[in-house]
Amino acid sequence: MEEEKQLDSQKYAADINSIKEAQVRIAPYVHRTPVVSSTSLDSLSGKRLFFKCECFQKGGAFKIRGATNSIFSLEDEQAAKGVVTHSSGNHAAAVSLAAKLRGIPAYIVIPKNAPICKVENVKRYGGQVIWSDSTIQSRESVASKVQEETGAILIHPFNDKRTISGQGTVSLEFLEQIPEIDTIVVPISGGGLISGVTLAAKSINPAIRVFAAEPKGADDAARSKVAGRIIMLPKTNTIADGLRAFLGDLTWPVVRDLVEDIITVDDTEIVEAVKLCFEVLKVVVEPSGAVGLAAVLSDQFKQKRSWNEMKSIGIILSGGNVDLSVLWESLRSRSFVAAAV
Amino acid sequence: MEEEKQLDSQKYAADINSIKEAQVRIAPYVHRTPVVSSTSLDSLSGKRLFFKCECFQKGGAFKIRGATNSIFSLEDEQAAKGVVTHSSGNHAAAVSLAAKLRGIPAYIVIPKNAPICKVENVKRYGGQVIWSDSTIQSRESVASKVQEETGAILIHPFNDKRTISGQGTVSLEFLEQIPEIDTIVVPISGGGLISGVTLAAKSINPAIRVFAAEPKGADDAARSKVAGRIIMLPKTNTIADGLRAFLGDLTWPVVRDLVEDIITVDDTEIVEAVKLCFEVLKVVVEPSGAVGLAAVLSDQFKQKRSWNEMKSIGIILSGGNVDLSVLWESLRSRSFVAAAV
Predict the structure, then answer these.
(1) Total number of domains constituting chain A
(2) How far is B324 from chain A (nearest CA, A)?
(3) What sequence ranges are listed for the domain Tryptophan synthase beta chain-like PALP (chains A, B) (predicted)?
(4) What is the CATH number of the domain that holds A279?
(5) Cα distance from A59 to chain B (closest Cα, Å)?
(6) What DSSP string describes A81-135?
(7) Tens digit of each residue's pLDDT (9 = 90 or more) over A300-335
(8) Residues B94 and B174 in one domain
(9) Comparing C-alpha atoms, which of B124, B110, B120, B223 is closest to residue B157?
(10) What is the ipTM of this complex?
(11) Does A339 reside within a domain?
(12) Which residue of B has its CA nearest to A332?
C-alpha cells in the first residue's frame, strides 16, 4: 500500500505532536484523573493493575477530551454557528459541556431509546436535545437537517483527528503517573480512544503493548482484525451500550497495525467486572467502562503469548454514567447479589 | 483546669510530630488517596468542594492508617502475641490487614448482627473472627477473654495516641494536595479521625476551620459539645452504622476545644449524599462515609456565621464498604430511584 511507505507520523490520523497540542489546549477544561490500584485485584489477576479513572472525568467519561479539543480548535466564526452530534451517550454529554465552556450552541440528536441518565447529562450541560428514531439512518438524517438549518459543524465521536488527539491525552497522563506500565488495555467501540492512546503510548515507548477489550455481542473490531478489513455487524447485543459503534477509516489503520489484539468478553464477564469495580475499587463504572478489567481477568487474555512478559497493566476505566436501577437489575438478574430482604 | 496551662502540644493526645512520624511509619503500607471534585457539586453547594477519597484506601476506609501506625509501633515481643479488637466494621478489617502486613495474628471480635460485607473484609484480610453478642458488654468481655488467653494487645479504634496520629495523616496529605482548603468537614463517631485531622490541620494553619458531621440518630458528639462534657446515648438509630461510637477521653478535648461545630444530618440527607457520590462523583461511599457531604449541603451548615468566609471546603469521604443490596433498598425505599422495570 502507498501509505506504508510514508513516515509513521503521516500514516495515522494523529501523532504525538497533535496529542501534546491537545493536552495543552484542553488542560484548562478537563480533570487530570487519578489512578487507583488494589492488591485484591492484583492477586486475582496475578499482575500489577493500575486503573485510570476516566469515570471521574468531567461529564463522567473520557469523551470530554476529544470534544474539547475539537470544539476549541474551531475558528470563532464557525464556532458561533454551534456544533451538532448524532452520537448519543457520553460523547453527546461531552459535546454539550465543551460547547457550553466555549459559549456556543450544541445540538444533540438522540435516539428515543437512549438511557435516561445519558439524556439527563446532555440537558444538564445545556445541550439542545433533538429526538430521532433509533436507526443510524434516522439519526444521521436528523443531524444533517440541523446542520443545514443552523450551519453547525458535526463533531464526530471518533473518526476525526482532533477527537483522536484529545483522547490520546489519556495515555500521556497515564504514563506520566505510572511510568512502569508495559501493557495498556482499552475499551474499543469506534476506536477513537484506542487510536489516540496507542499512538501516544507507542511514541513514548514502542515496547508498550496495547490490547483492545470488546463485548462479544459487538465484536466487530475483533472480526475486523482477523479479516484485515473493517467489518460491520447487522446488529449488536450487549449490556455495554457505549461500545456498539464500528471502526472508521481513520481509526482502523491504528487497530490494524499497532494494537496487539482484541480480547472479547461476554456480558456476564462485564457485569462481574462492574461489580468488582464497585465492591473492591469503590469506583462507579458503567458496563462499557469496565470491559477492560473483564478482558484482563478472562482466560483468553491469560492465553496470550506475551502474558508472561506483562508485569504492570494499565486499564482505562472509560466511563461511569449508569442508571443505578438498570445496573442493579443487571447484577441481580445474574445472581451476583442476593435479593435484598 | 490544670491542663489548660500546659502547651498545646502536651494538652492533646497527639501532635504534629507524632502525626508526621506516623506518616513516615505507614507510608509503605497505605495509599496516598486521590482528591476528586465536581463542578456540579460546586454549583449545588455554592463553594469549591474537594473530596478526599479514603474509600479508595486499603481496606476501603481511613482506618488502616491508625491500625498500621499502632501495629507497626509495637515491640517485636509484644507484636508476636498478636492483636485484638472488638470494634466491628472498618477498624476490624484494618487491624486484620495491618496485622497481616506485620505477619502477626489478629483476633477480631464481631457482633452477630454486623453487615456481611464487613465480616467478609475481615476474613479476606486474614483476621480470625470470634463472634459475640451485639451488646458492647458482650463484645468487651469476649475481647478480654481473648487477651487473657493469647497475650494479644488491644488496638483501640479511636481512643489511643497512635490511632489518632495515624488518622491525622489524612490531613497532612489533603493539605499537601489542595493547599487552598480553608475548611474541613469530617465524619465523627469516636473522634479518632477528627482529632488527628484537626490537630494536624490547626498546626499547619490555625485559621483552618474543622467541622464534624454526625447523624441525628447518633448525635452524642453534638450533645457533648453543647453540654461541655462527654454525653453517651442509651441507643442510636441511623443508617450510618460506622458512626455509632461515643467520644473517648483522648478525643473529647480536641472536639471540645478545636472543632468549630458539629453539623447533624438525618438519614434521608445521608442517603441523598450517598446517591450524589455515586451518580455525580462516581465514587462508592458507605452512608457513614458520605455524612460530610450531607452536612455541607444542609441548611444548618449554610446558617453558620463563618459560611460567607468559606471558599474551599475539604470533605473526607471516609469509607466505601457497603452491601450493594442494602444500599439499593435504602435508595429505593426513600423513592430516590424508580423501581427497576
Answers:
(1) 2
(2) 8
(3) 27-319
(4) 3.40.50.1100
(5) 9
(6) T-EEE---THHHHHHHHHHHHHT--EEEEEETTS-HHHHHHHHHTT-EEEEE-SS
(7) 999 999 999 999 999 999 999 887 777 777 777 765
(8) no
(9) B110
(10) 0.88
(11) no
(12) B325
